[in-house]
């Protein structure tokens, strides 16, 4: 097991957002976490990436194991630099005052592997030709969809082998969404482990191998993507019928 | 008449250099932390005192080095020691507050208190008597037609210009510089890039404080009388220069510093010298009324 969330409790101040959730992600898998607004999906990802307060929350119980080791005491930057887990956060959080290329360059901050790093620029520009086109453009002038691609590209540039995606389809047209998922599939085929959060449960379950359904801080259903797609409760609550 | 204008302009550049070097420190820290480091003027004072003690040690002490050797040693050492002072403030005062997520108001008040502690600590331990800075280099006067320039003044102006271009290259070209710019836009995403925020903040304080240290040396050489409160007014003025330039932007701080120098000197050229600060601040106020974000500042909602 690559990632194991064990009975995780998370609090914002006195308000508990996650009430003891458990799930796992294996190496090379695509796992999706679905759930409606406020279910605790983003909270879960922020706990894994150790986003510090005040932006982040506090883990009040349970554990997060990565490769069998607890990462609860690891700092946020080290999760990326040393554990190679990257997050493409909800709302993109690109550095709008920097160019596209500078955004990508910044993501390589802790990397020392010069040759591989050069290749990764080509890889990203190859996966997202739009990024190559917009390379020298100040990134806040990108369209919403392009910013989303930049956010994912940036995560790739950190040399992660586990990527957490918080609603990567947000703001994308159906065509771009299709593109994005095609790229993610390709990354996975190249060995990237993916934990995906999506509002669009239908899409996510068609794409992932396995899934978990999160409802107000608790996991209420789990299984292979196929089973969840056919689960009547899930169908009713999240797949519109 | 014209002659005196050019002469004044040159003097303005010298004062502008001091303001610019100090304003850069305000703007760097603000850009990265959204903190107005009101202790920064006193860091400049600390720099001047460090330069003073080092100079006495190398120049007047048993070593009795030559003035120019002393200067070559004093410049880097003062910059290093002053930045240690700046980083110490960040460590013991600002970082703990940041960790606790303290309201910005408390952090600003802490900065003001740190400044007062530096001033009064100096007063308490070194006494109220003023220190006079030794003359390290012989004054050479160059006469360009009607304008006279001293080697020291030329040195001051050139140093500030060179330092600015080095700093600008650092901010635009290096990854740490990029991270400093990026933090001001989105602090949340910095650790997501594998960047330790604290490292970037420490580098920011090192840069800002070492420039204040350099300003301290240059100022002490130009106006060789030091007292514990020498940083207060200059600090305020440099802060205003940074705001007028557009705080958070290093070009703004640089230009703002020179602008303030020019406005001040021109005010004295026309009005009695007691009017200097009144007129200078009134003009800066008018600039801010017309363009509240400062000359180079851009209104941006993400700037908190
Ligand atoms: N900074 C915060 N302070 C207090 N409560 C918070 C904070 N962030 C999230 N919460 C609460 O935690 C719960 C889970 O929020 P979270 O953002 O994880 O939901 P989500 O599943 O990502 O929702 P969405 O689909 O809308 O993004 C919500 O009830 C939310 O109100
Ligand atoms: Mg969310």
TrEMBL record, chain A:
One of its GO terms (molecular function) is ATP hydrolysis activity. Pfam families: ABC_tran (PF00005). GO terms for biological process: L-amino acid transport. Residues 3-241 form the ABC transporter domain. PROSITE patterns: ABC_TRANSPORTER_1, ABC_TRANSPORTER_2. InterPro entries: AAA+_ATPase, ABC_transporter-like_ATP-bd, ABC_transporter-like_CS, BCAA_Transport_ATP-bd_LivF, P-loop_NTPase. SMART domains: AAA (SM00382). Keywords: Amino-acid transport, ATP-binding, Nucleotide-binding, Transport. It comes from the Bacteria. Belongs to the ABC transporter superfamily. This is Amino acid/amide ABC transporter ATP-binding protein 2, HAAT family. The lineage of its organism: Bacteria, Pseudomonadati, Thermodesulfobacteriota, Desulfobacteria, Desulfobacterales.
UniProtKB/TrEMBL annotation, chain B:
It is a multi-pass membrane protein. It is found in: Cell membrane. Belongs to the binding-protein-dependent transport system permease family. LivHM subfamily. Keywords: Amino-acid transport, Cell inner membrane, Cell membrane, Membrane, Transmembrane, Transmembrane helix, Transport. GO terms for biological process: D-alanine transmembrane transport; L-alanine transport; L-isoleucine import across plasma membrane. GO terms for molecular function: L-isoleucine transmembrane transporter activity; L-leucine transmembrane transporter activity; L-phenylalanine transmembrane transporter activity; L-valine transmembrane transporter activity. GO terms for cellular component: plasma membrane. Signal peptide: none annotated. The chain crosses the membrane at residues 12-36, 43-59, 71-93, 105-126, 152-171, 192-223, 229-247, 254-272, 278-299. This is Amino acid/amide ABC transporter membrane protein 1, HAAT family. InterPro entries: ABC_transp_permease (IPR001851), BCAA_transport_permease (IPR052157).
